[in-house]
Fold each of these.
Amino acid sequence: MTIYNFSAGPAVLPKEVLQQAQAELLDWHGSGMSVMEMSHRGKEFMGIHAQAVADLRELMSIPANYKVLFLQGGGHLQFSMIPLNLLRGKLSADYVNTGEWSRKAISEAKKFSYVNVAADNADRNCSYVPAFDTWKLDKNAAYLHYTPNETIGGVEFNWMPQTGDVPLVADMSSNILSRPYDVSKFGLIYAGAQKNIGPAGLVVVIVREDLVGHAPSGLPTMLDYKIHADNDSMYNTPPTYSIYIAGLVFQWLKKNGGVAAMEKINIAKAKLLYDTIDASNGFYNCPVALPDRSRMNVPFTLKDANLDGDFLKQADARGLLQLKGHRSVGGMRASIYNAMPLSGVQALVNFMNEFAKKHH
Ligand SMILES: *Cc1c(COP(=O)(O)O)cnc(C)c1O
C-alpha cells in the first residue's frame, strides 16, 4: 500500500531524498563517515553547508545583500530574536494577526516592544485575510511582521503588503519554496525547516544586511544575528544532519523545475482538494474565505462531527495518515506541502468522495 502523510509538521519529505540519505547514511561520498559523524569544520561538511546555502539562494533568487542563516530554536526563537535585533532603538513594531502563529509572535514581541496590531481577523474566527486598506500602519514602526501562511487556520496571503520604508518581516515556516517570492521586498524571512524544507532542528533566516548588527548590548551572543552572519552560521555547532537533508531537498527542488514548477503543482493539488470539498453539498466544509485559502494546509470539517472518528480510521486503513485537525480547530487538516505528490491528493479525494457517498 502506498502511504501518504498529510502531517502539518514535521511533515512528508520527498521519497527520493530519503532514499539518497539512506544510500549515503554509512558512507558519504566515499568519506567512510556518516554526515552525522563529521566535524562541522571539516571540508566535507563545509562543502555540504555551502552548497545548501548556494542552492537556496538560487531557488529563491536571493539578492547578494541578504544573509542566509541556518539557525536553531525553531520559528519560536525567531519570535524573540526579531524584536531583539530589529527594533534598532525604535519603540514600536507593527504586527498583523491572522491566526495562531501570528498571535504567538505578537505575544512574544510584547515582552520587548510596544506592538501595534495593524490588522486582526479574530472578528471572524481567523478565517480570512484583512483587506490591506483597513490596516492601521505606523510609518515609524521598526518593522511589520506578518504570517503569509497560517498553518493551523489554513489562511494564506495571495498578495504582498506594501510597507514602504518599514522593513517587511515574514514567518514563511509553512509556505517557503511553495510559490515564488520577491525576496528584495522583505527585510527578513524566516522558516522552520520541518514543514517545507527538511527535518526539525533547523530554522532558515534570510535577512537584509543593513538590518544586522543593531542588537542592544548585553544581548546573549546566540541571539544576535550578527554573530551568526559573521560566522557563516558556524559560531556554534549547527544542526549538521538537518542541514544536509535540507540541502538534498534543495537539490530535489532544482531537479524538479524549482519554485515556479512547484507552484503549478501546488495550485493543482489545492484546487483538486477544495473542489472536492465545495462539491460535497455541505458534507465537507472549509471555513476559510475563498480568496484566502491556503495552498499548503487545508482545514475542513465534516457536517456530522460524530463521523470524525470513522473518517480518520478509514483514511488510516487506506494509508492516508495524520489528517486529524489541530486541537484548537477540530475536524480535519490535510497539509499538502511540496513533497506531497498529486497522486496523494488524488487518493485523498477518492476516499473523501466514497466516504461522503456512504454517509450522506
Ligand atoms: C510550525 C510553525 C512555527 C513554529 O515552529 P517551531 O519550529 O515549532 O518553533 C511558527 N510559525 C509557523 C507559521 C509555523 O507553521
Note: The chain has two domains: 15-255, 257-359.
Amino acid sequence: MAYNNNSFKRFRVLSVLALLYLSFYTKTGEARRPFACDPNNKLTKSFKFCGTSVPISERVTDLIGRLTLQEKFCCIESYEWWSEALHGVSNVGPGTKFGGDFPGATSFPQVITTAASFNDSLWELIGQVVSDEARAMYNGGAAGLTYWSPNVNILRDPRWGRGQETPVKIPSWPVSMLLAMSGDSKVMQQETSSRLQHVANITLPTILITGMVLIASTSMPSFGECTFMTLVSIKVQSLLYNFRICVSKQDLEETYNVPFKGCVLEGKVASVMCSYNQVNGKPTCADPDILKNTIRGEWGLNGYIVSDCDSVSVLYDNQHYTRTPEEAAADSINAGLDLDCGQFLAVHTEEAVKRGLVTESNVNNALANTIAVQMRLGMFDGEPSTQPFGNLGYKDVCTPAHQQLALEAAHQGIVLLKNHGGILPLSNTRHKTVAVIGPNADVNVTMIGNYAGIACGYTTPLQGIGRYSRTIHQQGCADVACNDNEQFEAAEAASKQADATVLIMGLDQSIEAESRDRTGLLLPGYQQELVFRVARASRGPTVLVLMSGGPVDVSFAKKDPRIGAILWVGYPGQAGGAAIADVLFGTTNPGGKLPMTWYPESYLAKAPMTNMNMRADPARGYPGRTYRFYRGPVVFPFGHGLTFTTFDVKLVEAPARVSLPVSSAVNSTVLSSANALKLDHTNCNSVSLGLHITVKNNGTMDGAHTVLVYSTPPAGKWSAAKKLVGFKKVHVPAGTDQRIMVGLQVCQHLSVVDQFGVRRIPLGQHQLQIGEDLNHSVSFHADLRGPIKSL
Ligand SMILES: *[C@@H]1O[C@H](CO)[C@@H](O)[C@H](O)[C@H]1NC(C)=O
Ligand SMILES: *[C@@H]1O[C@H](CO)[C@@H](O)[C@H](O)[C@H]1NC(C)=O
Ligand SMILES: *[C@@H]1O[C@H](CO)[C@@H](O)[C@H](O)[C@H]1NC(C)=O
Ligand SMILES: *[C@@H]1O[C@H](CO)[C@@H](O)[C@H](O)[C@H]1NC(C)=O
Ligand SMILES: *[C@@H]1O[C@H](CO)[C@@H](O)[C@H](O)[C@H]1NC(C)=O
Ligand SMILES: *[C@@H]1O[C@H](CO)[C@@H](O)[C@H](O)[C@H]1NC(C)=O
C-alpha cells in the first residue's frame, strides 16, 4: 500500500484513542464529563457519529472517516480500557480508583469459593451487584466501563497460583455472570425457572461488560519442539513469556476451548484477551487461526480482542518470533488483534504501515472494533447522568443488601470436608470459650484473594467467632509461611483452657498468586506441626479451617481422630469470618462441594506442570488431570462436601431411549458401520432429556443439596471417562422433599470428542450416574425413518 501522510496522521491520532493506554480521570467523586459527544456543543452535535439514533456501525464509519476533526477531543480525553471486576470492582487495573465518595466496593468471595456453591443464580446476583457498583463508580468518575474479567482458563494443575480465579470446569457460570453484568437478560428471560425470573427483576442489569479470556494457559516454560515454560514458581519472567504449549486437537475441543467458546457464543463477551504464550508454535496474539478464524469468525465475537499487557512486545523481544518490531505489530493486527495493553502498537504501527506490512484497512478494522464497544457503552451519547443507569451513584455501592449477598455467597461456598462423630456444629452453651489459633485467624485482606478491590469492611474469623462465644486468640505462626515454632506453646496453652479449638490455617497470596505457583501441596512451613500439637493439647473438640485457593494435602488431618472437623473456605470475601462462624455454630448448614480434585503431594512428581495432556499415559507414568482422567488416590474427590443433615435422592422418571434424527447425508450402509454420529449429521440440538429426581431431607436441619449428574459414554475411539454433565442445587427444609429436573442437551452434554478433535454422539448405552449411588442407562439410536433433508 502506498503510504500517504494524511492517513498516517489519522492513524496516529486513533492510535492514541484506541491502541495506547492512557488514563484520564476526573477528580474522584466528581461526575464524569461526556467522553466525546457533548449535546451542548454545537460542533459535536452535528456529527453523525454523535447521533444516538444512528446505527452503531454507521456511527463508527463516520467517526473513522473524520478523524482529523476527532483529534481535538480524542487526545484530550483518552479512555483507560483496563479495569478489573473478578469478584467485585477491583483497583488492580489503572482504570479504577478508590477514594472520596467511593472508598470501597463489595468484595465477594474469590471465584473458586463461589464455584463451590454450585448455585447458578448466585452468579447472576453477584454479576448484577458488581455491574451496578461499576456503573455507579463510572458515573462518579472513578472507574471505566470495560472490565477484563472473568478468567475462564481451566484449573489444570493444583499448583497454579491463579487457580483461585477460575470457575473451574463449569462454563455456564461465567456465562451467567457475564449476562447479568452486561444486562443481556434475554437469555435469562427464556429460562423457564421462576427463580431466575425473580432474580432478573431484582436489579436491572447495568453495564455492558467486557469479558477477558486468556486463551490457553498463561504459565509454563519450554522444552522440546512444541512445548515448554514453567508454571512452577515463575520467578524468571522470561520463562513465562517463552512458554510454548502443545495441545492436542482432542483436548482443545473437549476441554481447553470450551469455556472460551461459551463466553463468546452464549455469554456475549465484549472482548477476549490473548495470552503471552505460544500454542502449537504460534503466539496467541499473532495467530489468525485463533483470533480471526475461530474467535471472530466461528464464534462470532462482537467486540474487540486485546493483548495481555505487553504480550505483543513479548512475542518480539522475548520469543523472537519476528525479526523486527514492525513485523510483530503487523502480524498481530493482521491476525485480528484490535487493542494493545501496552505501548508497542502505538510505537511501531506507524512504521509498519509505512513499510506496507499492514494495510490501513486492517488498522481501521481494529479501530472500528474498539470504538464500536465504546459506542455501545454510551460513551459517545453525551452526559452519563442522562443515560440509562445514570442515576446510580455512591449510595448504590456497599449497600446493606450488597453486603448481605457477600455474606450469603460466603455461606454457600464453604465446604465441610470432615465431621467425625458430628462434632460440628459447636454450641454456644457448651462451648463458651473457643481458642482461635493460626496465622489466618484474624486476617482481613487475605479473605478477598487476588484481583480484588478495597472491601466495604471486613469481619475476620476471630471477630465472627467472637459473636458466638468468648475467644482466646493465638496466632501460632507469625504468618502463613510459618517458619518457626516459637509461638506453639502459647497456642497449646490456649487450647488447653478452651471448650473448643478452631485452627485457621492455609495459604495467602504470598504462597499462591499470579506468577507464583506452588512447588508443593502440603501446608507451608511448620503449620502441620502446629495443628498436630494443638490438637493433642486441646481440651475440647478441634476444628481445622483451611483458607486457600488451590487444594492442600491435609491427609494427616483427615486421618487424625483428634481433628474432629475440617472446613475449606477458599478465600471467602469481606464477610468471610462471619460466614465461617455461622457454619461452625450451625446457624448456617454447609452445602458447598469441592469444585476440584484434592490431590496428594505424591501426584506432583508424576504430573509435570508443563504437560498439557488431560489424559493419563500409564506407559510413561503420567497420571492425567482432573477428576475425569486421574484415577489415583485423592485426599478429597471432586464434588465432596458434607452437611449437618442427610438427603435421600431418588430417580423418579427418566427416558430409557433417545432417538436422534439423522441427515440425508447418512444412509443405512454408513449407519450400520458407524457407532457414533458426527454432530453435523444429526440435529441433536433439538434433542434433550430430562431426569426427574426427588431430594428428601430426612435429617433435622434445613439444608441445600446439589445433585451432580455424570455420564459415561459407550466404549469407542474416545475417552470412556465419566464427566459431569449437569447439576441442580435445591434447598430442602428438614422433613420435606423437593422434586427437581436436571435437563441434558444431547449435543452439548452427551457428545464425545475423538482423537481428531471431532465431536460425535455415540450410539448405544450411555450410563448416567445421579448423585453418589444411583445409575440409569439410556440408549441412543439413529432414527432413519425421518431423516432431515437439510441441516
Ligand atoms: C418479573 O417481571 C415480569 C415481567 O415484568 C413479571 O411478569 C413477574 O411477575 C415479575 N416477577 C417477580 C417475582 O416480581
Ligand atoms: C486489616 O488487618 C491489618 C492487620 O491486622 C490492620 O492493620 C488493618 O487495619 C486491617 N484493615 C481493615 C480495613 O480492617
Ligand atoms: C436418610 O437417607 C439416607 C440416604 O438414603 C439414609 O442413608 C439414611 O438412613 C436416612 N435416614 C433416615 C433417618 O431415614
Ligand atoms: C451411502 O453413502 C456412502 C458414503 O456417502 C456411499 O458411498 C454409498 O454409495 C451410499 N449407499 C447408498 C445405498 O446410498
Ligand atoms: C442460591 O443463592 C441465592 C442467593 O444467595 C439464594 O437465595 C438461593 O436460595 C440459593 N439457592 C439454593 C438452592 O441454595
Ligand atoms: C454406577 O455406574 C458406575 C459406572 O458405570 C459404577 O462404577 C458404579 O458401581 C455403579 N453404581 C451402582 C450403585 O450401581
Note: Residues 120-139 form the longest helix (20 residues).
